[in-house]
Amino acid sequence: QVHLVESGGGLVQAGGSLRLSCAASGSISSTNFMGWYRQAPGKQRDFVAGITTGGSTNYANSVKGRFTISTDNAKNTVNLQMNSLKPEDTAVYYCAIGRRRPGLPVVISVDSWGQGTQVTVSS
After folding, report:
1. Helix or strand or coil: residue 111?
2. Comparing C-alpha atoms, which of 98, 90, 118 is closest to residue 14?
């Protein structure tokens, strides 16, 4: 069983920055991927950014150039630096851990989710 603990999030004005962190513990040896998803009220949960244990990253088009994902494999932690935030980035952000199939297209299988952390961007 994998346990994910998220931190960060909060309220920020448009154009500001926030940093999310997620620490994983438990049975993670079979995983090679950690990432972030988000869900706005009344909408589905969407992929935001992900990174593999080999350092391969991918991003949703809506956040490219503004968000940066990084990981500390030794600490089993993934971070999401969010810059130039927009009101449309407002959502609950969820950390995820699982497996990403090598190559293209990107196929991700999520094994566990974090509890979610609220990010609110005011205009």
Report:
1. strand
2. 90
Residues 6+ apart with CB under 8 A from 110: 96, 97, 98
| Contact predicate 48/59, CB 8 Å | yes
Q: Is 44 helix (H, G, I), strand (E, B) or coil?
A: coil
pLDDT 10s digit of each residue in the chain, 123 long? 899 999 999 999 999 999 999 999 998 888 999 999 999 999 999 999 999 998 999 999 999 999 999 998 777 999 999 999 999 999 999 999 999 998 888 889 999 999 999 999 999
Q: Note whether 8 and 109 are within 8 A (CB).
A: no
Residue appearing with tokens 């851990």: 97
Beta bridge partners of 96: 35, 113
Contact 22, 4 (CB under 8 A): yes
